[in-house]
Amino acid sequence: MKSQNLILILIGIVCIGILPKAQAVSPVPDGGYAGGNTAEGQNALLSLTSGTYNTAVGFESLEINTNGQFNTAIGAGTLVANTASQNTATGAGALLSNTSGFDNTATGAFTLFTNTTGADNTASGAFALFQMSMDPTTMPSALTRSART
Question: What is the per-residue burial (b if ≥16 Cβ within 10 Å, else e) of 22-47?
Answer without folding.
Answer: eeeeeeeeeeeeeeebbbebebbbbe
